[in-house]
Design goal:
Radius of gyration: 30 Å
CATH topology of the largest domain: Immunoglobulin-like
Number of strands: 8
Shape: rod-shaped
Order of helices and strands: HHEEEEEEEE
Distance between the termini: 83 Å
Oligomer: single chain
Strand content: 25-35%
Helix content: 10-25%
Amino acid sequence: MSEDLAAALEDRPRPADPWRWPRRALMACALGAAIAFLVVTLQKSPESSSRPGAVTDPAVVRAEPAPGAHVLRQTSVGVELLPGYDGELVIDGVAIPEDQLDGAVGPGDRGYDPELGIRPNNRNQVFFTPGPDKAVDRYDTGEVHVTARFWNIADGRSAARTISWAFFVN
């Protein structure tokens, strides 16, 4: 008789699951939210050049600090360019003299060569670190604007291009 009972139970129609469709709808919403989160996250990634203020010129390897970054008052600012490029910086409207750029050597310094200029080994590294007796001794708190003007050395300054970005000082 137990076999007859088991067979009867198997053949009996099962009651409909009242949570079947709501559960499926909830899983579809969760999947959609996860996909939307992934898309938004990828669009806001640091490597994304579509964000406002991103440096997109192909001659610019990197800009520091990154556009929109929050930094300290003595942070080095500038751009790394492709080999064969040179440039100059303007920070909050102040043109930075070439002899104050990082890596500059003066006429009295060892390694100075008048034919190569005051930045013989780092033409494509245009960085400035604020300090005493410099054009900018420290950045003011708030937004700081940087403009880098750069050119292919073979083409000369007349073929210069510019990029601008801003960062924030805490």
